[in-house]
Specification:
single chain; 3 helices; five-stranded antiparallel sheet; about 40% strand
Length: about 150
């Protein structure tokens, strides 16, 4: 068989399958939608919001606990309101991390976690924020934006 014969045979097979089992009209639109929404479930799973009512110990401070994970690395953030109306973020990571970045608009703050994975951002203004973790082996985990 020559290449021409192969091409002709494949063309006939294609025609046969188009007649016997044609591509559904909505398949292309469904595939585009499937590809566009492929990562939605993982992005949703990345943000797990855990609101915990805490007992008042020292003052009537609002507290919020946020947990972010990509399946291999987790970040836990505990956000409290300070006396001056700003926020304090106490955080923990469960992997060896080189640095933690907190970004708010154009403002970027960088810190390094302790050996136990603990880190703190003090005097943070209210508003939208995002945390980015870079591990010692070069991987990074960036949270979705969240409201402080």
């Amino acid at each position: 068989m020559t290449a021409h014969d192969d091409a002709e045979l494949f063309a006939r097979l294609r025609t046969l399958w188009n007649d016997v089992d044609p591509v559904p009209a909505s398949l292309i639109d469904r595939m585009i939608a499937a590809v566009a929404t492929e990562n939605l479930s993982s992005e949703y799973a990345l943000l797990t919001l855990v609101a915990q009512p805490l007992g008042e110990v020292r003052a009537e401070a609002d507290a919020l606990t946020l947990q972010f994970s990509d399946g291999t690395t987790s970040i836990l953030l505990h956000v409290t309101t300070t006396a001056n109306g700003r926020r304090r973020i106490d955080g923990w990571v469960d992997t060896a991390s080189a640095e933690i970045e907190l970004s708010q608009g154009g403002r970027l703050r960088i810190t390094q976690p302790t050996e136990t994975g603990r880190f703190v951002f003090d005097d943070v203004p209210a508003g939208l924020a995002r945390v980015r973790l870079t591990t010692d082996d070069g991987r990074s985990l960036s949270t979705p934006q969240f409201e402080l």
